[in-house]
Write a structure and sequence with these properties.
The chain is an alpha/beta fold. The chain is built from eight helices and 15 strands. It has a six-stranded mixed sheet. A five-stranded mixed sheet has the order 8-7-9-6-10. A hairpin with a 5-residue loop joins strand 13 (238-241) and strand 14 (247-255). Bound molecules: adenosine-5'-triphosphate and magnesium ion (MG). Adenosine-5'-triphosphate binds next to helix 3.
C-alpha cells in the first residue's frame, strides 16, 4: 500500500515539490523522468503530471494527493480538499489594461473583452460584482492579447509585474492571491490517511524549523533572569555555568519574526558571544 502523490512534471512547481518531499526524508529516484517513481524509504509513489490535470486525477482517485497552485484548484473546480498551504510559488491573479488607458474602477470593464487562461475564476469574480464582460479563453501568452487586438484587457498570473510592463500593460486590480497547496481526494481509505498524516507531521516539523533558530550566548549571572524572559524557548531555556566564575551560557530557540528585536534586547542586557544556528527539524 502506498500513497500516490501527483506533482508537476516540469515547470515552476516541480523542483520545489520534490524539495518538499526531500525535506520530509522522502527520496525519489527519477533520473529518466518517467511518469511514475516510487520512494525508496517511505510508502509513497510520485506521479509526474501537467499541473492542469492534477485536480481531476485527485478527484478520481488516480492520485491520492497532489501539489499544485491554488489557482488551478479554483479554476478546475473539482471535488478535492485543500489540506495545507505550502508557502511557495506565491503569485497574484490580476486584471491588467494597456498602460495609457485611464482606469476608472471596476466599472471600466463593463462590456470589455478580457483574455485569460482562467475563465472560471474571472467569470465568478465579475458575476459577483454584477459586471458584464466578454471572456476570451486562451491557453498561454495571455500578455500579448491586447497588443494583437484580441482583447481590451487581460486577466493573468502576476508575480513581479515585469512581463506586464514589457507588453505595455498595467495591473489595475488584484482579483486574488495564490500559492502552492497540497490537495487530497475527499475521503482517503484509513491506511492512506495514516501515511498522509505522517507526511503532514513531517512537513510541520520542517516548517517550524525554518521559522525558528537555535541561539546560544554568554551572560553575566546577574542578567540571566532578564534574558530568560526574552528567550522563553520551547519549554524553558537551558542554562549552564561557564568555566569562568559569575557567567552562564544560555541556549534557547528564537522565532525568525522578532529575531533582530530580541537580539538588540539581549545585547542591552549584557549578552555576549551570541551564536545563531539553523534548526533542521522541530517537533513540539
Ligand atoms: P504545465 O505544463 O504543468 O501545465 P504551466 O505552464 O501551467 O505548467 P507553470 O508556469 O510552471 O505552469 O506555473 C505553475 C504554477 O506556478 C502556476 O499555476 C502558479 O500557481 C505558480 N506561479 C507562481 N508564479 C508564477 C508566475 N510568475 N507565472 C506563472 N505561474 C506562477
Ligand atoms: Mg498548466
Amino acid at each position: 500500500m502506498s500513497l500516490k502523490i501527483a506533482i508537476q512534471k516540469s515547470g515552476r512547481l516541480s523542483e520545489k515539490s520534490l524539495g518538499l518531499l526531500a525535506e520530509c526524508g522522502i527520496k525519489i529516484n527519477n533520473g529518466d523522468r518517467k511518469l511514475k517513481a516510487e520512494a525508496k524509504n517511505f510508502p509513497v509513489e510520485v506521479l509526474f503530471l501537467r499541473d492542469d490535470d492534477i485536480p481531476q486525477y485527485v478527484e478520481q482517485g488516480v492520485a491520492d494527493i497532489g501539489i499544485l497552485g491554488e489557482n488551478e484548484v479554483w479554476e478546475k473546480d473539482k471535488k478535492v480538499t485543500v489540506v495545507r498551504k505550502l508557502g511557495f510559488a506565491s503569485c497574484k491573479l490580476s486584471l491588467a489594461i494597456p498602460k495609457d488607458e485611464k482606469y476608472t474602477g471596476l466599472g471600466y470593464f463593463e462590456g470589455k473583452k478580457i483574455a485569460t487562461s482562467y475563465p472560471k475564476i474571472l467569470e465568478k469574480f465579475f458575476k459577483e460584482k454584477n459586471i458584464n464582460v466578454i471572456i476570451e479563453e486562451i491557453g498561454g501568452s495571455v500578455e500579448i492579447a491586447t497588443g494583437i487586438g484580441l482583447a481590451d484587457a487581460i486577466f493573468d498570473i502576476v508575480s513581479s509585474g515585469s512581463t506586464l510592463l514589457m507588453n505595455g500593460l498595467k495591473e489595475v486590480e488584484v482579483v486574488t492571491k495564490s500559492e502552492a497547496v497540497l490537495i487530497s481526494g475527499q475521503s482517503l481509505p484509513k491506511d492512506k490517511q495514516e501515511i498522509l498524516d505522517k507526511l503532514l507531521f513531517r512537513m510541520e516539523a520542517t516548517k517550524k524549523a525554518s521559522e525558528n533558530k537555535y541561539i546560544l550566548l554568554n551572560a553575566p549571572n546577574a542578567s540571566v533572569d532578564a534574558i530568560r524572559k526574552l528567550l522563553p524557548g520551547m519549554k524553558a531555556p537551558t542554562i549552564l555555568p561557564l568555566a569562568d566564575e559569575g557567567w552562564s551560557s544560555i541556549h534557547s530557540v528564537i522565532g525568525e519574526d522578532d529575531f533582530w528585536e530580541v537580539i538588540d534586547q539581549l545585547k542591552k542586557n549584557g549578552a555576549q558571544g551570541i551564536l545563531v544556528v539553523p534548526i533542521e527539524k522541530m517537533i513540539l
